[in-house]
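Deviation from plan, reported transparently: adenosine monophosphate complex.
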Amino acid sequence: MAEILVFSEKDDLAFELVSKGRELGAALNVGVAAALLGEGAGARSDEYFAYGADRVYVAHHPALAHFHAEAFAEALYQIAQKNDAQVLLLASTKRGKELSPRVAQKLGAGCVTDATAVEVQDGNLLVSRYALGGNTVASEFIKTPHKVIAVMPKTFELGAKEARQGEVVTVDLDLKEPRTRIVERREKAGEAVNLEEAEVLVCIGRGLEKKQDLGIIEELARALGAEIGCTKTLCSDYQWLSEDRLVGLSGKKTSPGLVISVGISGQIQYTVGIRGARIAVAINKDGQAPIFALSDYGIVGDLYQVVPKLVEALRAA
Amino acid sequence: MNIVVCLKQIPDLQQIRIKDRRPLLEGAPLIFGDMDKSALEEAVRIKEKAKGTKVTALAMGGAKLKDGIKEALAIGADEAVLLMDPPFAGSDTMGTARALAKAIEKLGEHDLILCGEGSTDNYSGQVGPRLAELLDLPQITYVRELEIEGNKLKAVRNMEESFEVVETELPALVTVADEINQPRLASLRDILKAARKPVQEWTAADLGLSEDEVGAKGSAIETVSNLAPEQERKQVVFKGDLDEVTENLINALTKEGVLGR
Ligand SMILES: Cc1cc2nc3c(=O)[nH]c(=O)nc-3n(C[C@H](O)[C@H](O)[C@H](O)COP(=O)(O)OP(=O)(O)OC[C@H]3O[C@@H](n4cnc5c(N)ncnc54)[C@H](O)[C@@H]3O)c2cc1C
Ligand SMILES: Nc1ncnc2c1ncn2[C@@H]1O[C@H](COP(=O)(O)O)[C@@H](O)[C@H]1O
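Because the crystal trials were delayed, the predicted structure below was used instead.
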């Protein structure tokens, strides 16, 4: 029987996909299954059932002990083939995003990564994603019989848990030892932030000269009750802030009531992340910066003068 | 060592205009994507350390590649292969990977394939992993540091929660993050010198590909629409006296009801 196969290395993201998969499966008249791969897989099977999976495939194999795209792609491919899974729903984390095209290639399938919406139209799946660096949103059909879709985390609401039973299928896979080896993992110092839920957001960019100066941004955030986000340079290159705080095409798409972009030029890969904001404000010393055209209100000025003044005024107000 | 760098020519996104929600690409100059340039820079740095390394720039695209590829040659690629043929037009990531894989096989021995983590316009991140699958290579994505010694490759990957240090043996496919390096700019002298470097142009037929396997016909994706989201911002800008502008802003935000909940 054809089915939708869900996988994410993060169970919580897989649950979002299972919830949505159930809705899509109902429309397409197919069941929903999930693949649980590697060490400890299967431990949370009951939750998969509670969110709507009819079946879980549990695979333990030495080649799956750590995430290697090569081995995980082969594992998903074998599970999909054996069980006639036509649609694969993955989470577009970095790992999911490198896994999807590899498994798609094995299946001869079209693939959409970073999907922001999936709906059933004319018995097919219509998938949306940002295109042209975030300038546009493309709606796409996948024409091949197999379809692989990697969905941005938090795109779908987590459905309500129900007391449901499902089938646990232990699968035997024929896998080769992956050719890559992980020799070290350096954890990033990061605190849990949830920019998607923030009501007020202060985003800081390259206008900030040094890490120590983050203090003035923190004060502004405190005065506003805001979370702090940043542009790519600050987290990827300088590592002043954790990647959790990245706003934009390769980071979070936010929808606060208010966002203040400080020392940010307004390149499309950033602004796509604040498009959902109700009110957008910019502070930039360059009056020609593109961010002003993408803002409701702007102040042309040096952030080192404007921000402290704004904090003072907010406190007085 | 033979290195192949895959480069995609894209419209300069800062120069795209939107009219009636439709992107106007005609006026926008064509450039190579940021991460593709970083991939090339990394290849050239490897070559500067390991004597006897050859760097081939590989690009599929339109006729303007002929001019654009000079930049890659000037930066340090030894030769270039351009896949320019009407049947290639409209290829999606599957068709693109198929053509690039055939070209890499035709080039012969390869030790390292370098791609961007994503193309600057599409940013699907698909072409690298698809190529790795087609060429049966291990893949290491999101690489911010790369070291090669003999046939050993060591890379630091930038993942969400960690930096992951990964090793493999060549041949391998690596996709680079843009923080891996600061690509050099080509001097005029380099560009002139580059005019003498060999550039080959291959068609679909040269790669043994039929017209149904590439281009729009060979695509797995059908784009139904591609429009800019509707959005109007008020674009009120305050400048001048510091006290005044902050007061103006706070008044405006208070009126909008986004302050002091
Ligand atoms: C495929 C791809 C994906 C990407 N994804 C993302 C993403 O998700 N998020 C992201 O942010 N970027 C992303 N980028 C990078 C993006 O293109 C830009 O490089 C980045 O957003 C620029 O950051 P910035 O505005 O902080 O820096 P800049 O563009 O350098 O701008 C700095 C601004 O600060 C202003 N300034 C300087 N000093 C002061 C001062 N004292 N007071 C006030 N203003 C000052 C300057 O006038 C300037 O406008 C991506 C790029 C690519 C190619
Ligand atoms: N037409 C192309 N020609 C050469 N290389 C390409 C092409 N398209 C994509 N690539 C390579 O594949 C990477 C990922 O592209 P994408 O899958 O579009 O995000 C790019 O950074 C390039 O290195």
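Chain B is about 30% helix and 30% strand. We consider this an acceptable substitute for the interim report.
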